[in-house]
Amino acid sequence: MTLITIGLLISGRIPPALIFILAATLAMLVNYPSVQDQKARIDAHAKAAILMAGILIAAGVFTGIMKESGMIEAMAQAAVRLLPASFGRHLPVTIALTSMPMSLLFDPDSYYFGILPVVAGMGETMGVEPVSIGQAAILGQMTTGFPFSPLTPTTFY
Q1: Distances (CA, A) of 16 to 5, 10, 11, 44, 113
Q2: How confident is the model at residue 4 (pLDDT cuts 50, 70, 90)?
Q3: pTM higher than the cut 0.90
């Protein structure tokens, strides 16, 4: 099975992720026929990875639903109506300055998957590139904000 998997990877005919998932599934079925044994092996070696994959898939689904249903655009339009038109050019600086205090209120997942898409939509409506909004958010959220957040256990160590 290992040689077949390596051969398929080298051939390049099938995407590597598909080869891996099929080979891993087959190996689990052959080596651990019982579902309880399979669960024990996954928990012993990949529990955090499976949890993270689940979170990322859920975040992608959440963001996709919000985008495709028009909710992000509607929320961005509603927020833009509250702001003066000249504020658009100041939006990245405002995000950079407020992202650090926002990290005290929101964990990174909530901030990046819930708030930032709406703010990026606001920026697009006001003529600001979404990449500028993302860079501004990272500036405060992940450099100064997250390490000092009460949501970060190492702060209290």
Answers
A1: 9, 9, 10, 24, 28
A2: very high
A3: no
